[in-house]
Amino acid sequence: MSQQPPGNGPEFVDDATESVPPPGGEPARRDALRPLFDHGMFDPGTLIAGRYRIVALVGRGGMGEVYRADDLQLGQSVALKFLPGGVAGDEAALARFRAEVRLAREVSHPNVCRVYDIGEVAGQHFLSMEFIDGQDLAALVRSVGRFPQDRAIDLAGQLLSGLAAAHDRGVLHCDLKLSNIMVDGRGRLRITDFGLASFAADVVDGGVVGGTPAYMAPEQLGGRGVTTRSDIYSAGLVLYELFTGRLPFSGDSPAEHLRQRSEITPPAPSSVVGGIAPEVDRLILRCLEIDPRDRPPSALAVLAALPGADPLDRAVARGETPPPELLLEAGESGRIRPRHAALLLGAFFVALALSVIVGAHQGLVNRVPFDLTPEVLANRGERLLGELGHAEVPADRAWWFHPDVGLLKKLRESRAPARVEEALARGFPAVVLFRYRSSPGDLIAQRETGEVTWRDPPLEAGGELRMSLDTVGRLNYLEVMPVRRRQDGAPVPDEETVWAALFGAAGLEIDSFTTTTPRWTPRVFCEARSAWTGTSTEAPDLELRVEAGAESGRPVYFEIFYPWDEEQSSRGTVSWIRGWLMPLAITVVVTAVVLSTLFLAYRNVKSRRGDIRGAWRFAILGFIATTGEWLFTANHVASGNELILVRRGLSEALVSAALCWLFYATLEPYARRYLPHSMVSWTRLLNGRVRDALVGRDVLIACVLGQVLFLLSMLPHVLARYTGWLTESWTLPAKWDSLLGAGRILGEFFELFAAVIFFAGVFVLMLLLRIVLRRPWPAAIVLFLILTVGWSRAFTSPPLE
Is 339 exposed, middle or buried (0-12, 13-18, 19+ CB in 10 A)? Predict the structure, then answer.
């Protein structure tokens, strides 16, 4: 069968008697009476634009003549469509035509006829398009009457997939009908003539321009504008004809068509022919609603409502990347039986209870003396400061808990769990330290989060101090910036009195120590210095070293050194590998990830593959999370310096939001392409559909799995405590800031989002390696090596304080 012309508007026969001449030639005159086999304006073999050789005329339509031609440069068949002279002479129409063709060229979909280029020969404009060796649906319907339901559903799915791809590019068809839909010899459907209906110059009664009245939506017939829902109405008429073999309306004028569409409810397809599924009935009638707002919101929504195979499965089978809208409308309901939901909920609470019970016995908090609250420890530290001669009332202060990293490492190396438990229970030496800072002015951290740490901000002004106590309130470390004061002749305490007071605050007996030469240089100025070695009554087998300093009769420095501190300090200088090679390598990797992310995100956005709306929402989540972390962890001050914290916090939040946007725009299209079903509930959740059944089911399952995985992660700690087998995992890690109150717990919760950004960066690195190395296994091995080196550096380097 011959290919029918993909025409727009009412079909007509062109009686022109003069053809368009080939470049450099004269018009080929024809007789008034055409031959039996009409070749149109060009005879077979005519060369057009020095590139296309005419094979045959395949038809005529409202948009002119269509020829099959051979592209001599690319060696493939194309369709050349010559526009009528009325359009060719209208500059405004041509400008709009070129603009819409630019959009149509971007529509790359298996169910859309590709538009290649625009050309001109002797004043005649033409399009070069994909040539489809097949028939249009109008001819097929005329030959078969109507399609069986399964075949009609398959064709409808292809039609809606192509229409959705065009709508995604902002291209409206405006003249969707059976004669504009081709089916090739393999049964694959193509939509033709996208974006060309408005240039058909098909003016009919009532002032309607473009389109075919029998397939036009009421608003299009009434001249009230055309939207994507107008195309959905036309698609509904096409579906009606596919399933029944006829249209629901008939009329001989646009006015009559408009009256029928506005006043008459179309009969259900099942009332015309039998055997049509009820969901098909409802779907087609919904597409034919008079009010556009009552129709499905998108072609993807119609596709998702079709019975049969899941639209995601259809897209994957065709090698397509399903758009985000399809994930929103996918047929996955996620509904589970109430008893199954109850079982999952019960399993979650059981696992949660077990996690609390096991964590309470395995964590450090319940295995060391921890009877004093942070506020009580802060008051006790301030009282000790007053006894040591630092009675000034601070203007700002901050405190937190911090583990003794050296002692933890030493305990991990122990092969005697019983001795470890004994050391933890006696509280000396302290595994967990309470750190305290105060200042006569505002404590303004230099980091963007605004969180005050042990070394941020640095001690600068006189009277600023940092101090650490153990969990029972004994002094472990003291460092005070000396205050410049006027000598008023008051008696200055002697050094022995100062040293005795410091030892008393630390719970040590100075008589048990022997004076020695100071070894370590204090970070603050000291007029007098001294050092001692000895043991404590609580740990007589542990050799201690104590150093102290004083200025103007007041202690400004005190520190207890344990054997593991001496070991760490005697390691010497940092090797060149850790000193500059590893930081350089990490910098190169991070830079490559960021630049690659910029490139991939730009490519996805330009090709419109990325979920831009989802990227913005994910960025907003990143901004909120980072802002929440800053709000609950920063050391806020009641002065104008708070503006500095606000500026730093907002800048950090904006950077996090930008990274979230880039990572999402980079990774989401690939996840949607290769793991579409796993993205359904996430896409719905990100679009605010929190009450969706699939979202609820997946969240419930994730909660159960999360608690089970947490219990499994506790297993090595339990075995280590009671068997001593796994000595490297003898105790659970802790988030010490959670002991500081509800505000810091919320800060820790928001801080977890930073881990999301980190792992997104890891996935981008994996994607980059996959692109460079072309195979997944080499990429996975290189990624493993990079992460192993980075992790080892993270765990062998001193913690940031």
Answer: exposed
Is residue 367 helix, strand or coil? coil
Q: Which amino acid is at 259?
A: R
pLDDT at 53: 93
Distance CA 282, CA 305 (A): 10
- Which structure tokens are listed for 512? 């048990």
Q: State the Cα–Cα distance between residues 382 and 206, nearest whole angstrom.
A: 89
Give the C-alpha separation, 45 to 39, whole Å.
11
Using CA atoms, how far apart are residues 616 and 435, in angstroms rounded to an integer? 40
Strand partners, 558: 478, 548
Question: Which residues belong to the active site?
Answer: 175
Quote the CA–CA distance of 693 and 334 in Å, as a whole number.
Answer: 5
Beta strand spans in 412-497 (E): 432-439, 465-470, 475-480
The one-letter amino acid at 442: D
- The length of the chain is 801
Q: Which long-range contacts (CB under 8 A, 24 or more apart) does 701-705 make?
A: 701/344, 703/348, 704/344, 704/347, 704/348, 704/351
CB of 307 within 8 A of CB of 171? no
153 vs 141: CA distance, rounded Å: 15
C-beta of residue 466 within 8 angstroms of C-beta of residue 396: no
208 band by pLDDT with thresholds 50, 70 and 90: very low
Within 10 A of 725 (CB to CB), how many other CB atoms are there? Answer: 10
> Which structure tokens are listed for 405?
């990293």
Q: How far is CA 355 from the centre of its chain?
A: 30
Residue carrying the six token digits 């169910």: 111
Query: Cα 268 vs. chain centroid, distance in angstroms?
Result: 43
156, 161, 164, 169 alpha-carbon torsion, rounded to 10°:
-140
Residue 501 predicted with pLDDT over 90 = yes
pTM of the entire predicted model: 0.68
* Contact in structure between 559 and 731 (CB atoms under 8 Å): no
Of 707, 697, 709, the C-alpha closest to 351 is 707
Rounded to whole angstroms, the Cα distance separating 132 from 114 reads 10
- Where are the alpha helices (H) located in 442-515, listed in sequence order? 495-505
Nearest-angstrom CA–CA distance, 20 and 27: 6
pLDDT value at residue 39: 66
Report pLDDT digits (tens) over 261-311.
Answer: 888 889 999 998 888 888 899 999 999 999 999 999 888 888 888 887 667
pLDDT band (50, 70, 90) for residue 560: very high
Measured distance CA(478)–CA(349) in Å, rounded: 45
Task: Determine how many CB atoms are found less than 10 A away from the CB of residue 15.
Answer: 7
What angle in degrees, to the nearest 10, is found between the helix axes of 495-505 and 374-387? Answer: 170
Query: Rounded to an integer, what is the distance from CA 573 to the centroid of its chain?
Result: 42
